[in-house]
């Protein structure tokens, strides 16, 4: 079964410096039909004005991934970590028992475009942690590259949950097939460009949840950048 989530149907908030689209209920946007998929609780597409960002604020018991599409985000947190995340890099922050952090546009002149992804951890009260890794274009071109996993396989960032996140770049004749176990749900989000998922056209911002079918076919890409989440059924 494939359930489509069109980009224009997402929640939308504009706060001057921030233009944000919410795939699931978040902040002032509430839709009981869209509270998340399995452990995936938040998928926000944010555009942040130059020199602006999220000032220091707290989180607890959440796995937070930052995936940058354009520009660079500067991260600081209460563990003393300081980093700059650019396109092709993934940041994982485990909030655990509690952490305070800020996420700011690193540039005073360029727009920052990113995805903020929150995943509910399997266990509460873990120690806060931070990890950042680069995934070059050639590792994602025409194939699904593992970006995050519970066992840090293939040099992916480690998630404290039974979730695997893949990224791919597809255009022209490039195509990928993904095997989905019957006990799992896939959530496919198109970050940029367009492609087809089992013949269903998806454009930037569109997404689809899939269950009950053993193979997923991603093809017909046009400058497509896509994330695939492999999630447990709950």
TrEMBL record:
A GO term, aspect molecular function: metal ion binding
UniProt signal peptide: none
Keyword set, alphabetical order: Dioxygenase, Iron, Metal-binding, Oxidoreductase
The record's free-text note on cofactor binding: Binds 1 Fe cation per subunit.
Binding site for Fe cation: 57, 59, 101, 103
Annotated ranges, domain Quercetin 2,3-dioxygenase C-terminal cupin: 146-231
Transmembrane keyword on record: no
CDD domains, alphabetized: cupin_Yhhw_C, cupin_Yhhw_N
Domain Pirin N-terminal: 10-119
UniProt cofactor(s): Fe cation
Similarity remark: Belongs to the pirin family.
Protein name: Quercetin 2,3-dioxygenase
Organism this protein belongs to: Acidihalobacter ferrooxydans
């Amino acid at each position: 079964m494939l359930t489509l989530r069109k980009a224009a149907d997402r929640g939308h908030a504009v706060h001057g410096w921030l233009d944000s689209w919410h795939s699931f209920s978040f902040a002032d946007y509430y839709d009981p039909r869209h509270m998340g998929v399995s452990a995936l609780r938040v998928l926000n597409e944010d555009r942040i004005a130059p020199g602006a960002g999220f000032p220091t604020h707290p989180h607890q018991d959440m796995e937070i991934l930052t995936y940058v599409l354009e520009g660079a985000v500067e991260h600081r947190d209460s563990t003393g970590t300081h980093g700059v995340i650019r396109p092709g890099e993934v940041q994982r922050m485990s909030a655990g028992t509690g952490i305070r952090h800020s996420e700011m546009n690193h540039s005073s002149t360029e727009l920052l475009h990113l995805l903020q992804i929150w995943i509910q951890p399997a266990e509460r009260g873990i120690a806060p942690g931070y990890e950042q890794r680069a995934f070059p274009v050639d590792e994602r071109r025409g194939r699904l590259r593992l970006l995050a996993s519970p066992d840090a396989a293939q040099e992916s960032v480690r998630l404290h949950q039974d979730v695997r996140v893949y990224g791919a770049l597809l255009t022209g004749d490039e195509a990928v097939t993904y095997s989905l176990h019957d006990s799992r749900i896939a959530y496919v989000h198109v970050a940029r460009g367009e492609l087809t998922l089992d013949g269903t056209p998806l454009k930037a911002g569109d997404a689809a949840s899939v269950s009950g079918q053993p193979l997923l076919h991603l093809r017909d890409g046009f400058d497509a950048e896509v994330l695939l989440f492999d999630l447990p059924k709950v």
